Predict the 3D structure of the following.
Amino acid sequence: MAFGVPKGALVNGKVAPHGNLFVAQWRTLARVLNTKEERLEKTLSDPLLFAKTQDVEYVQFRLNDREDDLEILQGVRKLRPKDSDKLPAATMNQSFCQPIAFNQDASEWAVCNHFDKGRLAVLKFRFDAASKRYDWVETGPFLGDAKRPLTEASMARLGHDWLITARSPGKSPGSRQTTRSGPR
């Protein structure tokens, strides 16, 4: 998943200070290689390996001055809230939906990530003019129910509100729980 503002983008008639800055994030997770069958085992076949390696990483980059390659501005690192090295939960998985601009000038972005125990939470990223990077600055409330874990979230903006939907595995295929929530 990636977000950012194109090079040369205008905000109120001026070049956006966060133009040509992009963030890409992805899930990391080691899996056991079954060499006899030449395949990877299912994700949860080794709970210890899962616990040690499940995470989300990200990188910040821009289009170089020649406009023929990408320039890494902040190397690959674990996705964590600003000024913290800890997650607000035991594990996190990346969003399955595209990040959405949170404000008019797209200096803030929102994405709904998945956390342990089948919970969801919206993360807000904000452009920091001093560092010229995006930071994870806010985490919305955790959404979920221990009896009905939530997966495969998606979200949409509805005026000043947000619509978050998710699949809840169970007896009825395709069952979904809809919640209006998120950082304001």
